[in-house]
Amino acid sequence: MKTKSDLPIRLASALVMVGMVGAVLWLGGYVWIGFVVLVAGLVLWEWNRLVRAVGRSPQAEVLWLFLGAMYVTGAALAMIQVRINYTALGVAFTYLAPVIAVDVGAYFVGRAIGGPKIAPKLSPSKTWAGLGGGAAAASCVIIAVVVSGWVPDMGETASVTAILLAIAAGVVIAVVAQSGDFFESWMKRRAGVKDSSHLIPGHGGVFDRVDGFLAVFFVIFCVNVAPGLARGSF
What we know:
7 helices
């Protein structure tokens, strides 16, 4: 658990991260591509550190490094593709904000209600109530985008069907994002470490901060980007 003395550092780091992501997302183009490649490279570096800390056989280590490269590269390609297809606001509110909402909703609802843990050996703080809160928060963000219509390139009418689809999307995003969180927690426990690294003051490593995003964007890669790559239309 982080001590109260960590709070100023955590807040300062969070503000810097939000400002940096917002700036490069707004600029788009090669700036966004370069940023995504940088983040992917740092995550892979941390992934490799975790794999080597487990002490697997050389063959198993090579396999895990290969799987990590596939996982992170797939998610990175999806991040690049959505920014090519949509404006900065479209990406921010439709792809990034719901994942952030999952973390926020899960944190506050989980603390307020408590209840049964999902996987106490992997993540003692994660509860089923928190997962429900994360799903509800993500759904609210997507519904707000659909109903408001102020994200132009998302052009959707506020029909009952659209709202139901928004709720379903929120649930799926919450489950996938939390699965990414659990997966990284499992890797860290196997490696016997608390954080993937200490690159971000007060927040641990880059992998710690983007585990949910990686899972969500990897699913987007599998559903939307990979078929285009297979057809040669990326």
